[in-house]
Amino acid sequence: MIKVTKLNGKSFTVNALFIEMVESLPDTTITFTNGKKIVVSEKEEAIIQSIIHFYRTINVLGLRDDRGENDDEK
Question: For 41, phi and psi rounded to 5 degrees?
Fold first, then answer.
C-alpha cells in the first residue's frame, strides 16, 4: 500500500499492485487496472518511488534490497 493525497488534502492509501499507469496531465493522475482514475497532489516521480519501495517491501519480482550501507562496497 502507498499513501497518496487528493487535491482536497484528504490522505489515504491505495494498493500499488492495482496501479496500471501514473501520468502528469499536469496534475498527477493514477489509473488503476479496473479503469478508475484518481488525481493526487504528489508528483509523478514521488508516486513511482513509493511504488518501487512498496514492491521491494513485499519482495515482488525479487526487488527486495536488504543490503546495508557497507554492502555497496562488495
Answer: -85, -20
Determine the Cα–Cα distance for residues 5 and 3; give it in Å rounded to an integer: 7
The grid cell for 6 is 487528493
φ, ψ of residue 33 to 5 degrees: the values are: -65, -20
Mean pLDDT score of the chain, rounded to an integer? 88
| Residue bearing the bigger pLDDT, 25 or 39 | 39
List the chain domain ranges.
2-65
Amino acid at 11: S
Instruction: Indicate the range of 7-16, 34-43, 45-54, 62-71 predicted with least confidence.
Output: 62-71
